[in-house]
Request: fold
Amino acid sequence: MTGTPAGGGSVRAGVTRPEHVRLGTVSHVHLGTISTAVAPLLQGPSRPARVVAATRYAVHLATGDRELPALAVVTRDAIRLPNALVLPFSSADRPLDLNTPWAGVGAGRVVIGPVRFEPEASWTPPRVQDASSPPDPARIGQVTVLLDALAQPLPPPLVPRLTDLRHALHADMSNEVRRAARALVGLGPGLTPSGDDILCGALLASRAWGGPLAPLSEAVADAALRTPLLSAALLRHAVRGECVPQAHAFLRALSGEGPPLELEPALRELLAVGHHSGGDLARGVLAVGVSRACMATGDRNDYPLK
Reply:
């Protein structure tokens, strides 16, 4: 999901276009809006950071901070990640694939090569709150059918791992949930592997609907050692309930907020996130959502374990 436009695309780590280094201003200073989730990174003295991936839509930095290991500088037409400093221009106006490995954060700014980014305001990323009611069973069933029809198929190596997670959630056994979740960490290619995206969805749904948040959080506690940095950072945000707007809207729709007609548009918006990330997030949400809905109704016989 990292470094992609709202309608999909892929990250090209280490691939840059030197002709786009200059962002069109003589001073190379650009104002933006910083997520409150990562605003603490800009406090204190300036310290080194490292460019780990760059696209025309985003530059992703390794910050060296244990709690907030990654920060993204993104154009206004990119996915609004919870760790992003959002710029007022589009990728068509000023592509961001900067040709430099060097960066710094702190002293109220982000510096990437010859360009300085300073926040003039902040924004608060959507945060999933604990809900008092379980997801709507009818909506869970409807979206399960829609997801099968609309999403890209899950890569074959992940299918049995997701099935294991569904079984563990159905059994409601913390040890089994932890084991199944750990097996998904880092599984799949890319800077945000499918296994991690599934876990992000499961974490968000567990926070929303009272699912097994503790064992899932424990399963990803050492994710920085087992998966790409950017994905590990997004898992940490998911543990705190912070997510992209499309995931937040999807969870609200499944909870019965708004008319049922909003379900399919909400799913389609989520599926447009990245190349595969939106579909994998939805799978993680539904894995928890089905189990919570079944527990709420007492009807566990038709639980989809495939």
About this structure: The chain is about 35% helix and 15% strand. Strands lie at 29-35, 47-54, 58-62, 70-74, 84-86, 102-106, 109-112, 115-123.
